[in-house]
């Protein structure tokens, strides 16, 4: 029984070489980890928000969780379609991610949104980088990532609407850590 992904695909979709498929699978595996992490982080925030904005944030996050879980499934299925083996275990996520765990526990809803804005910035930036890299490699995967990026950007806008000052600036602007963003928000 195989428990880890092979070092390379042995087959892929027609018209895509195995070297290109290997690269796309690696990009998608990173996106799979990021989206799984995002879904868990959103649910963590959902459970740990408090304060006068509790209900607005609490109910705003559940549809985002469900949508991101759908993205996870789409990315995993694309990996399999390309001949790869998606790794969706918690251990693989923790071992292979390049970011730290979400750092805010029970806190004010707006503080969480300040931190979540940074999380979304990282996920969206990395999705955009994967979009750029797949332009020549695999336009089908690129289309998948473009659609997801549009949704992720909209969810970040929902978050930022709670952080925006009347002059259009964000309360958490300039923060370089989740803790700093939460404090500034």
From TrEMBL:
It comes from Pseudonocardia ailaonensis. InterPro entries: DPS_DNA-bd, DPS_DNA-bd_CS, Ferritin-like, Ferritin-like_SF, Ferritin_DPS_dom. Belongs to the Dps family. This is DNA starvation/stationary phase protection protein. Residues 26-166 form the Ferritin/DPS domain. Pfam families: Ferritin.
């Amino acid at each position: 029984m195989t428990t880890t992904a092979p070092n390379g695909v042995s087959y892929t979709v027609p018209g895509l070489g195995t070297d290109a498929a290997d690269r796309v699978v690696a990009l998608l595996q990173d996106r799979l980890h990021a989206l799984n992490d995002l879904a868990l982080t959103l649910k963590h925030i959902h459970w740990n928000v408090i304060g006068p904005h509790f209900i607005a944030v609490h109910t705003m996050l559940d549809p985002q969780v469900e949508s991101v879980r759908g993205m996870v499934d789409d990315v995993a299925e694309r990996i399999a379609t390309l001949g790869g083996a998606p790794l969706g275990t918690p251990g693989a996520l923790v071992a292979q991610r390049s970011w730290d765990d979400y750092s805010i526990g029970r806190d004010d809803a707006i503080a969480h949104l300040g931190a979540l804005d940074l999380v979304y910035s990282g996920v969206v930036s990395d999705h955009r980088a994967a979009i750029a890299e797949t332009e020549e490699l695999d336009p089908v995967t690129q289309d998948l990532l473009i659609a997801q990026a549009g949704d992720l950007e909209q969810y970040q806008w929902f978050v930022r609407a709670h952080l925006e000052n009347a002059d259009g600036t964000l309360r958490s602007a300039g923060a370089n850590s989740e803790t700093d963003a939460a404090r500034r928000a």
